[in-house]
Request: fold
Amino acid sequence: MAKERLDVVGYWTEIKLQILQDYAKAYAQVLQNQHSIKHVAYIDGFAGAGEHISRESGELIAGSPARALSIQPRFSHYHFVEMDAARAKRLHGMGDQEDVTVYQGDCNEVLLQEIFPQCRYKDYRRALCLLDPYDLNPNWEVVETAGKMGSIEIFLNFMIMDANMNVLWNKPESVPPDQAQRMTKFWGDDSWRAAAYRTEQGLFGPIEEKGSNESVIAAYRKRLKEVAKFKYVPEPLPMRNSRGAIVYYLFFASQNSTGNKIAEHIFNKYRNRGVH
Ligand SMILES: C[S@@+](CC[C@H](N)C(=O)[O-])C[C@H]1O[C@@H](n2cnc3c(N)ncnc32)[C@H](O)[C@@H]1O
Reply:
């Protein structure tokens, strides 16, 4: 795959990669010391090309799969899912290791059908799953299944910029139905409407007023706890572009209090960094 087809990534993507790497390292260490646990998987649902080009330095930098592979102690198995054929091929080329499986396909299917069934709580298996899409993805079913299994913790990007640009318009009646459907698939039902709009009494009857990003994000966080049954969901980290605008919120969700403390500690290091 040509270098030109790699993503050029900015400061906040490099921060995200560092957060994931720091957490994955701590997670692997904590679970290695839990002798009842037989298998600890690393799952990358939107694995990417394996490398990126840093906007700041122009250098190649390791993507999330390569970072996970570099961590000691090693995970029991690495599952990398990537939709794009050229990128999946590139991931295959990263090292033909027995403990790595690359899947070319839609993670909304591959995770539910092939990977999550290998991570059951009752089999003393655990997994750390990164869900790092470009858009409003994955489907809610993936997130809810991970939460209810009790054995899988997740990092998830909530792409609020995609939501605001394409779905959460000031005039909700003008939103194309296929865009609203994307939001419903991501959210799990259409209760996002109540989270995103408040009804005000206008001169000629009730009107819907768009609420804040914060109210949408707080409602999604509540769903992760109450519907997907994750015990711990710290306040997500707002991630920005070079102009300082929030592109997505990085969520962490887990059943484990130690994992939660580690993730909160790492998030707090980067909170309120503002524009770079
Ligand atoms: C933001 S990039 C991933 C970056 C990577 N996690 C990293 O940090 O190095 C998102 C990737 O997801 C892939 N993708 C998009 N939709 C997908 C899907 N439904 N299932 C699997 N991969 C998908 C894209 O081709 C792209 O390479």
About this structure: The domain at 3-168+214-270 is CATH 3.40.50.150 (Rossmann fold). The pocket of S-adenosylmethionine is lined by residues 17, 44, 46-48, 63-64, 81-84, 87, 106-108, 132-134, 137 (CB under 6 Å).
